[in-house]
């Protein structure tokens, strides 16, 4: 169906609309909010907060509090139980879906009316269009930014990580020395890392929540940053079973984009090299022969010949290995270990076959993770920097 999706919508038109909307997000968000309030001003939920048919965003900010899905569950369960009154939306609920349950350990009911279904489909269209454009542009990504230049810059910075971290900390302190948070710890304009170590204690996101909440509530004074906060986002809530507010100013947005560029630059190069290595080692397997690769080891051929699959598609092959078949089915090297997954994604454990190389690779991932964690947090002041993110 994805291959034929261009007959349903024009990818370039979708991208143009997305670019137009995201170039003026404040106006679009205000207009969207006003439209939502006009359509749903008679609902029980808005009436509860004394909204009284107001449709301006200032009133919405003043009267309607920030809530989580948990706060809305009693109202949602009424709809699940068949209540058709206008609780949240003026238009009737047409579909009730279940989330995957990954964020809080249990699935949640998600309600849709027809208009929300259309909006959701538009989001998917936009996602697939942008993704397909990004993937097709990987070969020509140097027209947007120089992959090798980004990789060289990253390697240069990581070769002298201690110096870079000290300079970064000094720059942060110089730009934010007048903020309420740093003044609280009597830094008094000091911008050296020794003073930071001596005066500013270790903290977690929880310690900062009162300050963050003030900014969410509209406090524009320099609490954390000398530059104004332009965007407030919500985390997925996977680490502490609840979403957290994440604050951005323009400089942090640029840094985040630079991280993304670096990630894509490395990913593009490393994925091609890894894919070629995998094809070289496993080109003679039953699975690859099935798709007519015939010894090809370039990524263009695997895209053209080998379809996307899920674990379920591979289960017949895996079951043969579980039952003792030692022929080269999926890997050229023999399977030495078969593990069971935790079963969280589909409600039942899955067999995961390993050969020795894959076991070593998995161990290398763990080693790399711990090595980086220990290097980045090897001293007190590094911990202070990174524990806040």
What does this structure look like?
This protein has helices spanning 11-22, 25-40, 44-48, 57-63, 69-80, 114-137, 147-159, 161-176, 180-184, 193-199, 205-216, 250-282, 286-290, 299-305, 311-322, 356-376, 380-386; strands spanning 95-98, 109-112, 231-234, 245-248, 335-340, 351-355. It is mainly alpha-helical. It has a domain at 5-139. The longest helix has 33 residues, at 250-282. Mean pLDDT is 76; it is low at 1-8, 134-144 and 375-389. This is Jasmonoyl--L-amino acid synthetase JAR4.
> What's the helical proportion of residues?
55-70%
Question: What's the gyration radius in Å?
Answer: 26 Å
H/E element sequence: HHHHHEEHHHHHHEEHHHHEEHH
Low-confidence stretches: 1-8, 134-144, 375-389
Largest sheet: 2 strands, antiparallel
Number of helices: 17
Mean pLDDT metric? 76
Report strand order across the widest sheet. Answer: 1-2
> Span from first to last CA?
40 Å
Question: How many beta-strand segments?
Answer: 6
Structural class given helices, strands, pairing?
mainly alpha
What is the strand content? Answer: 5-15%
Counting copies of identical and different chains, the oligomeric state is single chain
Overall morphology:
globular
């Amino acid at each position: 169906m994805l291959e034929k999706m261009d007959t349903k919508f024009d990818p370039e038109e979708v991208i143009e609309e997305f670019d137009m909307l995201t170039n003026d997000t404040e106006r679009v968000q205000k207009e969207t909010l006003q439209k939502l309030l006009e359509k749903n001003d008679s609902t029980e939920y808005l009436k509860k907060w004394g909204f009284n048919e107001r449709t301006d965003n200032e009133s919405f900010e003043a009267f309607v509090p920030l809530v989580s899905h948990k706060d809305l569950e009693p109202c949602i369960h009424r709809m699940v139980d068949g209540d058709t009154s206008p609780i949240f939306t003026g238009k009737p609920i047409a579909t009730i879906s279940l989330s995957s349950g990954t964020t809080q350990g249990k699935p949640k009911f998600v309600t849709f009316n027809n208009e929300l279904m259309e909006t959701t489909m538009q989001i998917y269209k936009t996602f697939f269009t942008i993704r397909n454009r990004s993937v097709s542009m990987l070969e020509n990504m140097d027209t947007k930014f120089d992959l090798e230049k980004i990789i060289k810059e990253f390697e240069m910075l990581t070769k002298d990580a201690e110096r870079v971290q000290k300079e970064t900390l000094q720059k942060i302190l110089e730009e934010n020395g007048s903020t309420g948070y740093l003044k609280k710890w009597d830094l008094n304009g000091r911008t050296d890392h020794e003073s930071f170590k001596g005066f500013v204690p270790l903290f977690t996101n929880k310690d900062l929540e009162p300050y963050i909440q003030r900014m969410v509530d509209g406090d524009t004074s320099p609490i954390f940053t000398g530059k104004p906060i332009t965007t407030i986002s919500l985390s997925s809530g996977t680490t502490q079973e609840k979403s957290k507010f994440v604050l951005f100013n323009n400089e942090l947005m640029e840094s985040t984009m630079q991280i993304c560029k670096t990630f894509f630059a490395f990913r593009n190069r490393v994925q091609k090299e890894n894919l070629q290595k995998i094809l070289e080692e496993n080109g003679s397997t039953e699975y690859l022969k099935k798709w007519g690769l015939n010894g090809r080891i370039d990524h263009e051929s695997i895209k053209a010949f080998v379809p996307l699959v899920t674990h379920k598609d591979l289960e017949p092959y895996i079951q043969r290995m579980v039952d003792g078949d030692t022929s080269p089915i999926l890997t050229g090297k023999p399977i030495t270990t078969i593990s069971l997954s935790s079963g969280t994604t589909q409600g039942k454990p899955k067999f995961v076959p390993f050969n020795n190389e894959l076991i070593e690779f998995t161990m290398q991932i763990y080693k790399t993770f711990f090595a980086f964690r220990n290097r980045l947090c090897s001293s007190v002041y590094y911990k202070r920097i990174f524990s806040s993110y």
